[in-house]
Amino acid sequence: MNNEEFTRIRHHLGKSQSQIAQLLCVSPKAVQSFEQGWRRIPVYIERQLLVLLSMKRSTQENLKPCWEIKHCANSCRQVEAAEHVTWERTGKDKNSIQNRKEK
Questions:
Q1: What is the pLDDT of residue 64?
Q2: Residue 40 DSSP label
Q3: Phi then psi for 60, rounded to 5 degrees?
Q4: CATH T-level fold of 1-62
Q5: pTM tops 0.70
């Protein structure tokens, strides 16, 4: 992600530099540095920003979780929800994490 994309996403989210800094757990000075191109945007910041963007999109479009679309049983819902949270935090699915633990 480059500085222009970062700025465009922040504007799309309707957040000030201070507000996005708080959401990303960084200083407002860091956000300013990202937008000016003075600092590289870390991967974890990109991921958090994209999650915020997807959350806004899902609320705007009334998207349903996959378990509502597939009509999954409660046990499946818990597993799929946990895998979704794992992916949001790590960027990796459950299988890649499990394979890494086994090695």
A1: 67
A2: P
A3: -70, -35
A4: 434 Repressor (Amino-terminal Domain) (1.10.260)
A5: no
